[in-house]
Design brief:
The structure is a homodimer. Chain A is mainly alpha-helical. The first copy, chain A, has 3 domains: about 130 residues, MgtE N-terminal fold, CATH 1.25.60; about 100 residues, Roll (CBS-domain); about 170 residues, Tetracycline Repressor, domain 2 (Orthogonal Bundle). The first copy, chain A, contains 22 helices and 6 strands. In chain A, the strands form 2 sheets. The first copy, chain A, has a 3-stranded mixed β-sheet with strand order 1-2-3. In chain A, helix 19 packs across helix 22 and helix 21 runs antiparallel to helix 22. The first copy, chain A, is elongated and about 90 Å long. The termini of chain A are far apart.
């Protein structure tokens, strides 16, 4: 049972690479999966050490390890290789989709030079084709390698075709059946091929109800289809139904992960999905936009409070609860938005009409708001002797929670209607507007209360 | 090419079900995937309508459609069926893992009664076994159906075993090879079986380096392994290496999605992953804990400001910028935490030493903080004539951003050390503590500045 990588093994292998101990590196790396090797390579601070380790790997393992490295480090390592080396040692050992990923970020001219060095021109052509797809599309994550047979083929021919492709393609789950124009007509799962009598006709045993995606559709659409229908592999076609390639579930797992990370980044106020390993300027650039929006919101807030300067001078104790009101409005709003954003993502948001959804939101807010306001009021009445202040803060809190919750429900819906990512609404955007709203409500209620009591 | 479900088709089918038009329901539902049918059923408000539609489906489609429904609706529909119906129409038509999911939430006694109604006692035994696993474990998401042969089997026997299992198991990707104690010894991918000469010996062609997971490990561990090594199916073993079942990628896609949604929910201040379709009390319960923490933070904040009441009475204009300082500290802190949380999730956080990470965070905060403080200072100097206030707010802002960023980096790390989900740190928890911190810094800087200028 392969137990994978232990901390000690990473340490030993790192040490052996740093000590330039070729025999030890070879011995320690022999039974490691490329993904594990990539982890070791990423742990090596020095580029020379990483190159040394990689140079000792068998060619195919070397190529696969590169596919698991993070982009920055991989590009640095590629810069140390000649075009010929990249073509022969890396691209020729990889499937078309992985090969495309590897040279994706290189300048177009270098891409062309590298592809010219590939001996297998069909493989080079596949990579060149894949490089043309917009990286947001299903086409960009597909692989060209697949087993394809005409509708007229015999089962023996299917097995022969699998044998021909077997070396290039690790994971064959099905044979694709096409007509004379390469239009996808059906699929034959390997299990069915294995169990069918040898003289069965392809026409009689293929599954014709094939779910496919068009190359120009978004990769999220492909991910959604595979997730929805529990597919392991999804054929990609053009607008005429012609079979172009296939997407495997491992690529889609990455898409799902990326999507989730993007939502999380947006909710946390990062405009790009940055990693702690990125350089400082990139991280700062991702953080600044939302900080500046927050700043603008804060300045607007200061002007609103400024309007109530007189009131504050008479009742300076009102200032005490400014952060509480602002923060609670922000919290309640983000909660409502997050529920809405997830509801939009998995379509449950559409089970109710808009009116009913708002009513539900209003009632939840009333419930949670009442609990919070009561708690706050009790605190105010017990620990302070300022009755007006306690009432003011309590009423303002309830009002702010209700308004923020309803806004938090409406804003993601509006963004969704205008085809903007609703996850934006869970970021500092909504916190900031709720801060301002909260202050306004607080001082309005204050004016009313102090006037009344 | 199956294009799936159109809005019109949902509408027509809904209408036909509501009108009790059996022929139309049958005609419209004939070529729909169970997942699509589940979508239609979820769109039906009335339980009777849903039951009517489901009763017209072929038995197998009916069972599979149930697996795609959300838990609440499914449990309601199950309550309308007798134990015998659940056993015969549902469980007998499903693989062991899906069957287990269906009755998971029923009372133990009803589970037992239902299982006793299943004619296939082996199947009932499998479900009973799976029900025993803690729902957090890999065992809970595995299926018992798999193709297993002894090491001594011939290839013909393998094909025969696949044929025997073929009816129960939709997705067969490989044959598992075990010794006389059922200990997993290797796997034989279908592709290899198809291509090997019929007289080949199993021992010579199986892959022995099998990645597996123990049933008692977490389901996240299983998901991680499959994601890491790009696996479509993962064998599950006990502590002795005995083969117990297998996990397929579609189950793991759900685990990955759940995990991402949990992080997102935490970051948005929801203590449970609630959906907009859940009932009000559940939603309110998920929201209240964080709101109450926010409330507590706000009260603490009010006490801190209270300490500076005198200062506020002399300089009431200081109150104007309270929300700005609080909000910016919160924003910067959450950003740092989010980067750290993602770094911890994908291990990139460990590429640098703690000291270097803090230094990087400090420098990023200095950079972004300086930009924000300069912007604010310029605003203050241009639009107000209060030099002291402008300087105070600018200096406080820079200080708060730096402290909040460093704290935002340290807190997730601390949580991680203590084996608490670091994603907690991106929720209202950190916003609240940064609010308080920010106020403290603001008024301290204010006292210093107004004393100096």
């Amino acid at each position: 049972m392969a137990s994978g990588l232990t901390k000690e093994k990473i340490h030993d292998l790192k040490w052996a690479a740093e000590a330039r101990d070729a025999d030890k590196v070879r011995a320690l790396s022999a039974d490691l999966h490329p993904e594990d090797l990539a982890e070791v390579v990423e742990a090596l601070q020095d580029l020379e050490d990483a190159s040394f380790l990689l140079s000792l790997l068998p060619e195919e393992t070397f190529a696969e390890t590169l596919t698991f490295l993070d982009d920055t480090q991989r590009d640095k390592l590629l810069n140390q290789l000649s075009n010929r080396e990249i073509a022969e040692k890396v691209l020729e050992n990889l499937a078309s989709d992985d090969a495309t990923d590897i040279i994706q970020d290189l300048p177009a001219e270098r891409q062309r030079e590298i592809l010219q060095e590939i001996d297998d021109t069909a493989h080079a052509g596949d990579i060149a084709e894949l490089l043309e797809y917009d990286e947001k599309t299903a086409g960009a994550i597909m692989a060209k390698e697949l087993v394809k047979v005409p509708l007229t083929a015999s089962l023996i021919q299917c097995v022969r075709e699998i044998r021909r492709q077997a070396e290039d393609t690790d994971d064959i789950y099905a044979v694709y059946v096409v007509d004379q124009n390469d239009v996808l007509k059906g699929i034959l799962p390997l299990k069915k091929l294995l169990l069918a009598p040898t003289n069965a006709r392809l026409e009689d045993i293929i599954e014709r109800d094939v779910i496919s995606v068009q190359a120009s559709e978004s990769k999220e659409k492909a991910a959604e289809l595979m997730k929805k229908y529990d597919l392991v592999v999804l054929p990609v076609v053009d607008s005429m139904g012609k079979l172009l390639g296939r997407i495997t579930i491992d690529d889609v797992v990455d898409v799902i992960k990326e999507e989730a990370e993007k939502d999380y980044a947006l909710a946390s106020g990062l405009s790009e999905n940055v990693s702690s390993a990125d350089n400082l300027a990139v991280v700062a650039r991702a953080r600044l936009p939302w900080l500046l929006i927050g700043l603008l919101g804060g300045i607007l807030g200061s002007r609103i409070i400024g309007q109530y300067e007189e009131q504050l001078q008479i009742h300076p104790e009102m200032a005490f609860f400014i952060p509480l009101i602002a923060a609670m409005g922000g919290n309640a709003g983000v909660q409502s938005s997050a529920i809405m954003v997830q509801g939009l993502a998995n379509q449950t948001a559409f089970h109710y009409s808009l009116l009913r959804r708002l009513l539900r939101e209003f009632l939840t807010a009333l419930l949670t708001g009442a609990v919070c306001a009561t708690a706050l009021l009790s605190y105010g009445l017990i620990f302070t002797d300022n009755f007006s202040l306690a009432i003011t803060v309590g009423v303002a809190l309830l009002t702010v929670i209700i308004i923020a919750s309803v806004m938090g429900t409406l804003i993601p819906l509006m963004l969704y209607r205008f085809k903007i990512d609703p996850a934006l609404a869970t970021g500092p955007f909504i916190t900031t507007s709720n801060d301002i709203l909260g202050l306004f409500v607080y001082f309005s209620v204050g004016r009313l209360m102090y006037g009344t009591f």
